[in-house]
Amino acid sequence: MEMETLLYYANLISRQINHGLTPEEQGELNAWLEADPSHQMVYDGLREGDAQQSAIDFMNSLSVDAAWNKVSAVSEISQSAPVVKNVSSFRKRFAWAAAAVLVASFFIWRTNMDQPVQSSAAPVEILPGGTKATLTLADGNIISLDAVPNGDIAAEGNVQVIKMDGTLQYNGDNDNADITYNTIQTPRGGKYQLVLSDGSVVWLNAASSLRFPVVFKGKERQVELMGEAYFEVKKGEKPFKVSLQNGSRIEVKGTAFNVNAYQDEDLLRTTLLEGKINFMMMGKTQALLPGQQIRVAYEQPHMQVIDGVDVEQEVAWKNDLFIFKGMDVKSIMREISRWYDIDVVYKGKFNPETFSGIVSRKTNLSQVLKIMEEGGVRFAIEGRTIVVF
Q1: Average pLDDT over residues 314-322
Q2: What structural domains and CATH numbers belong to the chain?
Q3: Would 74 disulfide with which of 45, 128, 194, 235, CB 3.0-4.6 Å?
């Protein structure tokens, strides 16, 4: 039996003891118990509450015999468990499996002590992201913004590029030169604020990039976005246009709006907070009013307008918050993975619960996971990978 399968059934046993199972989960556990005598023996050991010490013994000794003896002792105490008299061949076949289940159970049990599951005796706390980004200049030079001091960091013609705490600002004019472009890019676990040459302000979320001209020349102000950004566009005669990776475009003259255009999401979302915007795709234009959101599915692109959107939730990331309102596990974990720079894998089966809560994005990952643990989801932390059960 593979380790991930052992972890899954150990998790079911833990949840049955502490929280109870759904009828479907209980049926699945019953079928597993009936499939092999060793499964029932391990189950009875866990029910007796001796799983933690069994796991500790196994880890300390790294001995199959020690682990088997502990399991056998627990089995003999239990009235319902069969006592195996001839264990010579039986133990060779199942000792490692039984010990692995006990070890897995021990880690899962720790969620009941108000901390996320850890797969190490010396777990390392995963810290939140911060102000990190790189700037690619017109000549191809790349500047790590979190590695240089505040002040003037570059000059693009007559335009000075100034770094302040978590903010990049473009000052000056360059009307006599050709249009040149810079790109600011945030990694997973990074965010940054940008003040464009026209005074418009852009906040970039993690794993995002914005390509923009050093100065806006011609009849329009155009930028290119990948990922997520919040815009406060300064009013002007020239329309401000945001081009997105799926070929759609947003056009405004002066307003505040949020764009979530991550490619790993199911939908592209544009939410208007103030003013008015036009969303254009495949030759069609859709106007938005404050409080409205336009959604475009990546697989079957068509524009859907949603009224009465919770704009605070949409821009929570900009205000250093996670706001979850009726969100499913995978949607939440996508946000978490980008901000904490972690990978997420899913093991076994879990119910499609939804979660609600507000958590600061400045807190460590374990505090965020606690909210979901209270809803029955279990986690194992393996380095910078979160396993969701």
Answers
A1: 95
A2: 3-113 (no CATH), 130-314 (2.60.120.1440), 319-388 (3.55.50.30)
A3: 45
